Structure formats: structure tokens, C-alpha cells
Amino acid sequence: MSAQVIVHRDKTTLAAAVAARLVTTITDVQAEHGEAHVVLTGGSMGNALVEALVDSPAAPAVAWELVHLWWGDERYVERESADRNATQAREAGLGRMAALGLDPANVHELPATDDAEGDDIAAAAERYAAELARVAAGSARRGPHGVDVPAFDVVMLGVGPDAHVASLFPGKATLDVTDRTVVPETDSPKPPPARLSLTMPALCTADEVWLLVAGEDKAEAVAAATGGADVHEAPAAGVRGRRRTLWLVDEAAAGDLP
Ligand SMILES: O=C(O)[C@H](O)[C@@H](O)[C@H](O)[C@H](O)COP(=O)(O)O
């Protein structure tokens, strides 16, 4: 199934539209299943989405106590570091979502360097994989194809100017990992070098994958990835939702599209 591109006027409109889409999608999932699993992204788009979501008048329509939040990747640094996607999301307003019913135990942050694994980034990756497997095993909502993750309803991903997604970068061996759900990256071309990332097969278990992209500096990456570039050159080209793949972009990011 081919990906669909939806263009919004600018970044603010895009964030508001994605927040509205997320509320509606989670509400639909909950009408059928109760529990929902959403994978958040970092980056400025991820933060803009959290801000828009918390302020959305429709946010209370979601039964947040039944929502699990995960991340597609994380910088492997100390837990309170401002570099962490999770820290930035908290600052963008995720912390305030407890008031809406979100259970902090269902907010699944990736490990940090001040956790028990310390410098052992491979062990940290294994622990997050184990957490994904544990939650899947304890739930009626398991991922498909025998991949040991919960049923991700939506995976959201920012896209870098080099077309990277999560912490899967062009030319890296991590792109070809298929036997695990979480991998370490110790030599990221974008600082900081140490990161943890969901793998391509784990991301692609999602019912819906939404690529969220704003800004002129992303136009080339959007055109390449939607135009059928090789996944090793444009990792964003390789992520597909089982039911739907949406590129949700602003006009500037859509600038190089035919
Ligand atoms: O880990 C990182 O270095 C960033 O989180 C990165 O992966 C980001 O998600 C994309 O580069 C899109 O970033 P923007 O949404 O800020 O454009």
C-alpha cells in the first residue's frame, strides 16, 4: 500500500492537525480495544505535537488511563539531560497529562546512562526490548508477525534532513537488524553519538505510521523518501504502517514534491 502525503500550511497548523488526528485515532482504537499504544517521536515536531495535544480541547475525550506511550528512539545520556526526548516531552507538557488520567507507569521512557546498565548500552537496549515484550505478554493487544511488541496503534516519527528516522541513520548497519526490537547506535552522525532505537521491523508492526515533517531543510528528504529511495540512503523510505502510512508535512517540507 502506498504512502499518502497530507500537506498543512505551516508547522503550527501541522502540530494542531496531528494532535487532533491522534485524539480521534486513539478514541477509535479505544472504542474497539480499550487499551491503546502510541509511539512518540522526539525532535521539535514531537515536542510541538505534545504541546498541541495537551492544549487540545478534545484531549479529555481520550481514556488516557488506558494509553501506553513509548518512544521510537532516545539519546543515551543521563535521565534528566535536556538532550533526552523524554525530558523535552515532559517540558512540552507531557507531565501535565497525568491530570487527564495518563498513568506515569504507562509512560515507557527508554533507559538512561544513570540506570543500572551504565555504559553497557547493549544491555540497556535489551532492557527496553524486554519491557516491550513484558507489556505485550500481559496484554490482549500484542503486535503482529511474532514481533515481541504491543500492538502499536500509531508510530510517529520525525525525519531528519538526511532522511533518518528514530535513530536509524543512512548507511548504518542498524537498518538491517531484524532479529531484535531495540538496537544501540554508538556512532550517530548527529550528536550525541550514543542512542537507542526501535528497529525497522518493530516500527513497521504499527497499524499506522505517521511521518511528521516541517521545514524547508527537509524538502529533499521528503521527496527522496516518498519517491522510492533505497532505505539505506533514506531510512524514512523504509517505514510502513500495516494499514496506513501518512506523511504529514508542512508546505515548506513539501516544496520538492512533484
Ligand atoms: O534524535 C534526534 O537527533 C532527533 O530527535 C531527530 O531524530 C529528530 O527527530 C529529527 O531530526 C527531526 O527533527 P525535527 O522534528 O526537529 O525536525
UniProtKB/TrEMBL annotation:
Q: Which reaction does it catalyse?
A: 6-phospho-D-glucono-1,5-lactone + H2O = 6-phospho-D-gluconate + H(+)
Please give the function described in this protein's UniProt entry.
Answer: Hydrolysis of 6-phosphogluconolactone to 6-phosphogluconate.
Query: Do you know which InterPro entries this protein is assigned to?
Result: 6-phosphogluconolactonase_DevB, 6PGL, Glc/Gal-6P_isomerase, NagB/RpiA_transferase-like
Q: Which GO terms describe its molecular function?
A: 6-phosphogluconolactonase activity
Q: What is its EC number?
A: 3.1.1.31
The family note in this entry says: Belongs to the glucosamine/galactosamine-6-phosphate isomerase family. 6-phosphogluconolactonase subfamily.
Question: Domain of life here?
Answer: Bacteria
* Xref: Pfam families: Glucosamine_iso (PF01182)
Record-linked PANTHER family: 6-PHOSPHOGLUCONOLACTONASE (PTHR11054)
Identify the residues that the record assigns to the Glucosamine/galactosamine-6-phosphate isomerase domain, covering every copy: 10-247
Q: What is the lineage of its organism?
A: Bacteria, Bacillati, Actinomycetota, Actinomycetes, Micrococcales
Q: State the gene name recorded for this protein.
A: pgl
Which one GO biological process term can you cite for this protein?
Answer: carbohydrate metabolic process
Q: Which organism is it from?
A: Arsenicicoccus cauae
Q: Which pathway?
A: Carbohydrate degradation; pentose phosphate pathway; D-ribulose 5-phosphate from D-glucose 6-phosphate (oxidative stage): step 2/3
Q: What is this protein called?
A: 6-phosphogluconolactonase
Sorted UniProt keywords:
Hydrolase
